[in-house]
Write a structure and sequence with these properties.
With 389 residues, the chain is mostly helical. The protein has one domain. The protein contains 17 helices and no strands. The chain crosses the membrane at residues 79-98, 147-167, 199-218.
């Protein structure tokens, strides 16, 4: 008992002096026991000491998130401009809709007398031809029913709506940055005013519509063109585009090299645009459209004589809209690929508008290659044209 009292006295003095002696064995065991018996929730409530690995994980999380965001953004920026490729199949929207959907199939939408020459009783659908326009026909020369004509014009119009919608997004750089073809930049214009002028040109869609009406209704096309049988004949669409461009190449060349008076009356009004924009595509004279577009169209119809009505629609929409695209003031993502294949691009056609004596083709550059009149836009990169167009 005396020894215990002495130990307590020594410890009290140490505390009062600010010193503490090492605990005895009994004290150590007692302390350890009390700590081991502490409730688990007290241990969990203690602040957690962060280790180096924890800090590394915490710091790397935002970096990984940023990395994923950056890579995803880059991928979107790379893919987004290529969405414009959808404009090409959308040019064929109406013939595809009326041929390949059950609810909108032409046979369910229109009376059979409108698209069969023999009326309701004729059962040979494989060789159906366009119906006779009964109330507008005479016994000597029957008029063709305007159903095919109306659908053809509608196909071009609907395809053009898709093109204009895409071009507006492209022009506003919603789908990515754009590059003007020429170094002097894009000519300023009011979009709606230019659009109105584009659609109302007498030498453009109005004259084309008149040509299509006369040749269709008065039965001036090969018989197969009035047939609703089958679907789009894609090889014939390609042949029509090639034949049309060859004939147009020849007529275009003639306009340039023939008598100056012919050039002044016909093609010169279109060449006032040395830095053209998309809405200048059909801004020319009536003689120019007749010589360089309508005559080649008539020739093409009588060279490629086995097209059906759907092929004729697909060709017409593809041609009219492609002719519009090559007048664009800015380039499109697909142009390097097109140029490598000899397909017409905006930069190719800008060469013609800028220098006059090169690139007389429109949808194809093949005939310029053969004739030695092709000039690659790369030849004027960094000079008149921006690099990379």
């Amino acid at each position: 008992m005396t020894s215990n009292t002495e130990a307590l006295r020594r410890r009290s003095n140490a505390v009062l002096d600010g010193k503490e002696t090492p605990p005895t064995d009994d004290e150590t065991s007692s302390s350890s026991s009390s700590e081991s018996e502490a409730p688990s929730h007290i241990e969990q409530s203690k602040p957690r000491t962060s280790s180096a690995s924890d800090n590394a994980t915490t710091e790397s999380a935002p970096e990984n998130h940023s990395l994923y965001s950056t890579s995803g953004s880059k991928m979107i920026q790379h893919v987004l401009p290529w969405l414009g490729l959808a404009v090409w199949p959308l040019m064929l929207f109406l013939p595809l809709l009326l041929n390949h959907t059950s609810k909108c199939h032409y046979s369910t939408l229109f009376p059979r007398t409108w698209y069969t020459i023999h009326g309701e009783l004729w059962l040979d659908k494989s060789v159906e031809e366009g119906g006779i326009w009964e109330w507008g026909s005479s016994s000597d020369k029957p008029l063709r029913h305007p159903l095919g004509l109306s659908l053809g014009i509608s196909a071009v119009a609907i395809g053009h709506v898709f093109l204009l919608a895409y071009f507006r997004l492209h022009q506003q750089q919603v789908l990515g940055n754009t590059t003007p073809v020429q170094r002097r930049g894009v000519a300023e214009y009011v979009y709606l005013t230019a659009l109105k002028s584009h659609l109302s040109q007498p030498g453009g869609f109005l004259l084309l519509g008149l040509y299509l009406t006369i040749t269709w209704v008065f039965d001036m096309l090969p018989p197969s063109y009035y047939s609703f049988g089958g679907g789009i004949q894609y090889t014939r669409v390609a042949l029509c585009l090639i034949c049309q461009d060859f004939a147009q190449f020849v007529m275009h060349r003639v306009e340039h090299v023939s008598h100056p008076k012919v050039y002044r009356i016909s093609h010169k009004p279109h060449h006032k645009f040395t830095n053209p924009k998309l809405f200048d595509a059909f801004d020319g004279s009536v003689p120019d459209t007749a010589i360089m577009i309508l005559i080649p169209l008539f020739i093409t119809a009588h060279v490629v004589r086995d097209c059906n009505v759907w092929t004729y629609m697909a060709f017409g929409s593809s041609y009219a809209n492609w002719l519009t695209l090559i007048h664009s003031e800015t380039t499109f993502p697909w142009e390097p690929l097109f140029r490598s294949l000899g397909l017409g691009t905006a930069a190719d056609h800008h060469v013609h508008h800028k220098f006059f004596k090169y690139n007389f083709g429109h949808t194809f550059m093949w005939f310029d290659w053969i004739a030695g009149t092709y000039r690659n836009p790369k030849d004027v990169w960094g000079k008149e044209f921006n690099v990379g167009v």
